[in-house]
Structure formats: structure tokens, C-alpha cells
Specification:
- The protein has 315 residues and is an alpha/beta fold.
- It contains nine helices and eight strands.
- The longest helix is centred in the middle third of the chain and has 27 residues.
- It is globular and about 50 Å long.
- The mean pLDDT is 94.
- Bound molecules: NADPH dihydro-nicotinamide-adenine-dinucleotide phosphate (NDP).
- The site of NADPH dihydro-nicotinamide-adenine-dinucleotide phosphate has 30 residues, from helix 1.
- It catalyses: chlorophyllide a + NADP(+) = protochlorophyllide a + NADPH + H(+).
- It comes from Forsythia ovata.
- Its EC number is 1.3.1.33.
Length: 315
């Protein structure tokens, strides 16, 4: 049978390119888990993904209720789950004030981390059940949360501190809307959320890899300067960013190439090692990359896991 892979945020950018790359092999049914059903259907058609290779299911990660509903719908479909890709994200670099999810969490961390945290915890049982030989849970990371790289040192830097804002509910009411308890900064909130993504992947690996055989992985696919991620940025930034990445930092990668990279992490038998943060060198070969000190801090990963469990109602 074909493999079943859920990809969140598959209605544009990296998620869509990955859905296309997997569907084209004819070996995958891609479940596009998207907040805008019509946009996802249109995107799949426009990308030329054949009908028999994808299914769109509604998922809004900015609502825990919607995450529960998605999981119910998926279970009722009777499809086995072989791979889950947590890809969706929002980036709000110019926001002056925080905005919030349905449950009142700051939107970037609420969507990128907490929504995905609940989703992957609820779907872990489905992954455990499948007979598929290579079951994987992939959480898309980023270099921007990685302070051991040049790009990761562009201010404002990611820093989760002692998680006091997160522990306080991240709601901007009684507590701060930032994980470290500081003042709201949209660019930093995104980077913090990506550090959470990478810490979560490693904590999953430590807790569940041996027992379940599931491969847990994260990756930095390269700088995909033309995706919708930068839609909230100022116009001049959006004009200058792609050539800057192409010619100055040389970190630029097309959506198509980035999609092929993530598709490798989904299905390539040689990328089956668990607990790895994959990156690609200039000749597009994958290698196991190092994470920054904070993004590989085991104690912080454990604490993040426990605080997140409380916030999403699992503990
Ligand atoms: P896009 O903005 O193109 O894609 C993000 C996707 O997330 C969209 O499909 C969007 O849906 C979806 N999304 C946003 N909010 C929600 C929500 N509440 N519920 C469900 N889906 C949601 O950006 P990219 O393709 O660039 O980003 C994909 C991943 O790649 C992210 O994890 C990002 O951090 C990572 N990444 C990107 C890099 C880059 O240079 N672009 C570099 C490194 C990592 P909709 O279509 O409805 O807006």
C-alpha cells in the first residue's frame, strides 16, 4: 500500500512543495492538514498533484479544539498514519502588539509549538500502531533559532530563559506573552517557537524512540526566501531578501529544492536515524547538524515538555 503522511500547513511554501514531491513518487497519500480548506484544494490543483495522491483535512493549529477535531476526523477515516510532518508556522516580525490563539496563547508560539505539541502527542498512538516499516515524526526547525550560526545571531536572538512566561500561560494578561517573560517581540517569538520545535523533537526521541521504533527528526531546509512566511514583512524586505540570500549569504534554496529535502526526511531509507537535526551542504547533500546550546539543553527540553503538557490540557 501507499504510505500516509500528514503535512500541516501544506497549502503553501515548503509544505506544498513537499506534498508535491511525495505525491509525484506515486508511493504516498498526503493528508494536507490546513486551516483554509479551499486554499489547500486550489493549491494542490495548481501544483498539479493528482487527486488520488492527496486528501485535504481541516486543521487550525491556533485552536486546541480544532486539533482535537482533526485527530478525531483522521482516526475516523480509518487510514493508518505512517509519517507526521509538523510544518505549519506563522511569523509576525512587524507586529507591535501580540495576537492570540483561541485559548489565549501568543499566536507564534501557540501555533508553531503548542498546536503541534498537542497534535503530535495525540497522534503518537496512531504512529505506534502502523505496520509501515519506516514510521517518522518530523518537526520542521530553523537556523534562526540556532545561536551557534551566523543567521541565528541576528538580533533579536532566541532565548527561552527559565520559561516563566510560558509557565504563566503566555497570555499577556497576568503573565508575559513571551516565553522568557520579556516584552513582546514578534521576530523573537518566532525564533523561540522554533527552538521549542527542536527541543520537542529531541524530547520525543528520548522518551519514545526505543520503545516505539519511531524516527524523530528535525531539519533546516535552507532559506526559502520566497515563501508566504515573509508575507507580514515590510515590502522592501520582501524585495531585497531573496537576492540577498541568493548572492550574499548563499543560503537561498528554491521551494522545489526545499520540498525535495523535506521529502527525503520523510521517506529516504538513509535518513532513518532518530534524534537528528538534518541540514544540507552547498552540493545539496544531507548531513547531521549540531544544534545550539539552548536548542540541545536536555533539562530545558524536559521542562518545556512538562509546561506544554499543562497548557494543552494533557497533564
Ligand atoms: P508559508 O507561510 O508559505 O507556509 C506556512 C503554512 O503554515 C501555510 O500553509 C499556512 O497556512 C500554515 N499555517 C499558518 N498558521 C496556521 C494554523 N493556525 N493552522 C494551520 N496551518 C497554519 O511558510 P514556509 O513554507 O516558509 O514555512 C514552512 C516551515 O518552514 C515553517 O515551519 C518555517 O518555520 C520553516 N522554515 C522556513 C524557512 C524559510 O526560509 N521560509 C527557513 C527555515 C524554516 P495558509 O496557507 O492558510 O496561510
Amino acid at each position: 500500500r501507499k504510505g500516509n503522511a500528514i503535512i500541516t500547513g501544506a497549502s503553501s511554501g515548503l509544505g506544498l512543495a513537499t506534498a508535491k514531491a511525495l505525491a509525484e513518487t506515486g508511493k504516498w497519500n498526503v493528508i494536507m492538514a490546513c486551516r483554509n480548506f479551499l486554499k489547500a484544494e486550489k493549491a494542490a490543483k495548481a501544483a498539479g498533484i493528482a487527486k488520488e495522491n492527496y486528501t485535504v483535512m481541516h486543521l487550525d493549529l491556533a485552536s486546541l479544539e480544532s486539533v482535537h477535531q482533526f485527530v478525531d476526523t483522521f482516526r475516523r477515516s480509518g487510514m493508518p498514519l505512517d509519517v507526521l510532518v509538523c510544518n505549519a508556522a506563522v511569523y509576525l516580525p512587524t507586529a507591535k502588539e501580540p495576537t492570540f490563539t483561541a485559548e489565549g496563547f501568543e499566536l507564534s508560539v501557540g501555533t508553531n509549538h503548542l498546536g503541534h505539541f498537542l497534535l503530535s502527542r495525540l497522534l503518537l498512538d496512531e504512529l505506534k500502531k502502523t505496520e509501515y516499516p519506516q514510521k517518522r515524526l518530523i518537526i520542521v526547525g530553523s537556523i534562526t533559532g540556532n545561536t551557534n550560526t551566523l543567521a541565528g545571531n541576528v538580533p533579536p536572538k532566541a532565548n527561552l530563559g527559565d520559561l516563566r512566561g510560558l509557565a504563566g500561560g503566555l497570555n499577556g494578561l497576568g503573565s508575559s506573552s513571551m516565553i522568557d517573560g520579556g516584552d513582546f517581540d514578534g521576530a523573537k517569538a518566532y525564533k523561540d517557537s522554533k527552538v521549542c520545535n527542536m527541543l520537542t523533537m529531541q524530547e520525543f526521541h528520548r522518551r519514545y524512540h526505543e520503545e516505539t521504533g519511531i524516527t524523530f527528526a528535525s531539519l533546516y531546509p535552507g532559506c526559502i526566501a520566497e515563501t508566504g512566511l515573509f508575507r507580514e514583512h515590510v515590502p522592501l524586505f520582501r524585495i531585497l531578501f531573496p537576492p540577498f540570500q541568493k548572492y550574499i549569504t548563499k543560503g537561498y534554496v528554491s521551494e522545489e529544492e526545499a520540498g525535495k529535502r523535506l521529502a527525503q526526511v520523510v521517506s529516504d531509507p538513509s535518513l532513518s536515524k532518530s534524534g537528528v537535526y538534518w541540514s544540507w551542504n552547498k552540493s545539496s547533500s544531507s548531513f547531521e547538524n549540531q544544534l545550539s546550546k539552548e536548542a540541545s539543553d536536555e533539562e530545558k527540553a524536559r521542562k518545556l515538555w512538562e509546561v506544554s503538557e499543562k497548557l494543552v490540557g494533557l497533564a
